[in-house]
Structure formats: structure tokens, C-alpha cells
Amino acid sequence: MITRRRALALGGVGAAGLAGAGAALISRGGSEAVTDAVAFTGPHQAGIVTPAQDRLHFVAFDVVTKDRERLVRTLREWTAAAARMTAGLDAGEIGAVDGMPEAPPDDTGEAIGLPASALTLTVGFGPTLFRDATGKDRFGIAGKLPAALEPLPRFTGDTLDEAISGGDIAIQACANDPQVAVHAIRNLARIGMGTVSVRWSQLGFGRTSSTATGQATPRNLFGFKDGTRNLKAEQEDLLREHLWVPDGDGPDWMTGGSYLVTRKIRMLIETWDRSSLAEQEAIVGRHKGTGAPLGAAGEFDEPDLTAVGADGTDLIPATAHVRLAHPDTNNGARMLRRGYNFVDGSDGLGRLDAGLFFIAFQRDPRTGFVPVQRSLAASDEMNEYVRHVSSGLFACPPGVTGGGWWGDRLFA
Q1: CB 3.0–4.6 Å: which of 153, 173, 192, 355 could bond 184 by disulfide?
Q2: What is the dihedral of CA 318, 375, 155, 321, to 10 degrees?
């Protein structure tokens, strides 16, 4: 019987042999059991329509080398390590404790004994990877820059901190154990030392969206159900229309991929908590308890944007979040949301530094995120209680197949 995080070390298996690693057998209390691993390979990257896990560690890197071959080598090494870690194994073949005592181990070791915890690792490339601030082609890939990867506009009310925005490469680690997610990012940063440096990172807990029909709708830190109308993995027709980049819709290397938008949204928790229930529900446009739209009984009832009350006013106010974010208000725009709550301590004045780390995947941010956020920024009553402090946009290529690696079609 072999233990977790030593299986591949014993067999010397590389990244190409990991396609079926998610179904490997491991030792748990003396009996065999199938791991809770999510398949790493496939037509689309895991961590997008994968049922949303409970924990997040998101990181954005700056590429600090000018050597294209070194960057490619790092992407290859990252792919091999990602495939191993998502299968519940050490980042390297030797592992955390079996190497030469005189050399650093090729895994940091804090995940020894932990299950895979449904870990997914999703990579995306930012616009600055293609061209620097002067417009110079950094790695010979400027000609492959997708038009959809144009920088996001600055929206009304944005208070963005550039130090925690943007980045050349992003990696999203999601898992059901925070230590597994942190371990994954830590080891990728270690492997990439000298090629990349961490620009910013974000921990998250308590998913704020469901991405599968079997998941209950979670709540955000305002106490409301969040993501009721989110796209789901089972809605394949809607995913083809709103999520996946089709053939011919941009450069070939993005076919089957998706575009990732991140926004760190600080919630003014203390101010919100002093607002009446009626005011909170009017701002959101839903009942706090059931999640039903105002004027409806069930959470999944369609919001009636034409309904009026006995006094002749809209049941769902014109400035309600639900109305302004609705596809009917935004020419049918839809996204797959995958955000998380965060609490980063206090701001030194006794106020929580907390809120929503918004994550959304879409076929094209110009027709997905941008029009919705413009609508919200202009009129959403919730703006009194939130501050957008960071922003990011990344192109996520399709999944790894046939022994490939992250970015293989981009750097071909």
C-alpha cells in the first residue's frame, strides 16, 4: 500500500501520465478509497465550471525574466507540478522528505497527509505579458494578443490600487481545504523563482456563487444569497453562448478558453449593518431570508421588472442591484461568477477590511462584464456600501490535452 504524495515518486511518472491520476487509489486508514481529485486534463481548464470549492488562493505574477525559453520552461514545470498537486501528490517527483538532505526538498511539505480536496489550478495571461508599457513585444507573442484582452475601462467610483491590480500571469487555486490551496500556490511560486515574482495575492473563503445545479446558493458578507442566476455547468447551451471562446472568435490559441475578470470589492460592513432590513432588501432587490426577488415567493422565480406596488412604484426599485445586473437590462450579457468572501483583518480604525473577491469567466468581457459593470457603476444604490479597490483581466486558454502544457498554443 502506498501513501499519498509518494505514488508518482515511486513510479517516476511525469505530467504526461497524469490524465487519469484523479482516479488513483490511496491509503486511508488501511483501506483503499478513490481520491477526491478533479481531473487536470481536458478540453477546458478545471476551476471554471468545476463545482465551486469553499476556499481560494489567487495570485498574480509579474514575469521578471526577458528570456522567452526560460518562461516556457517555467510554464512546462508549472504544468507538471499542477497536474501532480491536483491529483493529491507532491509538487515534485522526489517529494518533501525523500530527497538529498543537503538539498532543498522539491515540495514544501505542509500538505503531507492531506487529501486532494478537489484542488483545481487555473491559469490566465494578462495583457502586459504580450506588450510592455511602451508597446514593445516582450516574448514574440504580441501578434497573438486577443482583441478581447484590451484593458478594462475605469468605471465610475473606482478607487483602484495598482499594486494589487493587473499582472502578467494569474493562477487561481480553489480547494475545499485552505492549506491545500495555499500549498499549491506556494510551490508554484517556488518553482517560478527567478522567472516570476508575486505581484499580489488574495485568500478567499465561503464561495459566493454556485456553479453546479446541485449546489445551494451561498451568502455574501451582506447576508444575502449571491449568484442565484449564475450560469451552471449543466447549462451547456448557455455556456457555449456566454462562457467558452468559439473557433474563429479571436486567436486560435484561445479557442475553448475563457476570459477571467477579477475585482476586489471592499464592503463597508459597519455602515451596512446599521441599515434597516427594508432598506437592505430594496438595495439588493431580493428578500434577505428566502433570496426571492421582491414581489415573488421563491429564490429562483424570475424577477418581474415591470411589477409595481399598491402605491404605483416599482416593486424592484430602479436602483436595485438585481435590476441593474439583469441580462434584460444589459442586452443579454451573462457571466459565470466564481467569487469568494474575504476578511483581511481591520483597517486600523476598528473597521473590518472585508468584502467580495469577485471572479467572473466569460466569452468576451467587452460584451459580458463591461456593460454590466457600467450599469452598476452608474446607478446601483449598493455603491454607497462598496468600494472597488483592485481589478484584473486575464485570458485563460483551453485545457491541457495530449501531453501539452500551459500556454503551449500561445508560445508555439
Answers
A1: 173
A2: 50
The pTM of the whole model exceeds 0.85: yes
**Residue 94 to residue 113: CA distance in whole angstroms:** 16
How many domains, the chain? 1
User: How is residue 224 annotated by DSSP?
Assistant: S
* Residue 195 lies in domain: 1-412
List all residues 6 or more positions away from 321 whose beta carbon is below 8 Å from its beta carbon: 283, 284, 285, 376, 380, 381, 382
Q: How far apart are the first and last CA of the chain?
A: 41
pLDDT at 166 over 80: yes
Taking each helix axis as running N to C, give the angle between helix 68-86 and helix 178-191, from 0 to 180 degrees, rounded to the nearest 10: 150
Give one DSSP letter per residue of 309-348, joined into a string: -TTSSBSS-TT-HHHHHSGGGTTT---EE--EEEEEEE-S
**Cα gap 28→331, rounded to integer Å:** 51
Residues 391, 264: Cα–Cα separation, whole Å: 7
pLDDT digits (tens, 9 = 90+) for 69-125: 999 999 999 999 999 999 999 999 998 899 899 999 999 999 999 999 999 999 999
pLDDT tier at 155 (50, 70, 90 boundaries)? very high
331 and 297 Cβ atoms separated by less than 8 Å: no
The CA distance from 136 to 286, in Å, is: 48
Q: What is d(CA 370, CA 372) in angstroms, rounded to the nearest whole number?
A: 6
Q: How many residues does the chain have?
A: 412
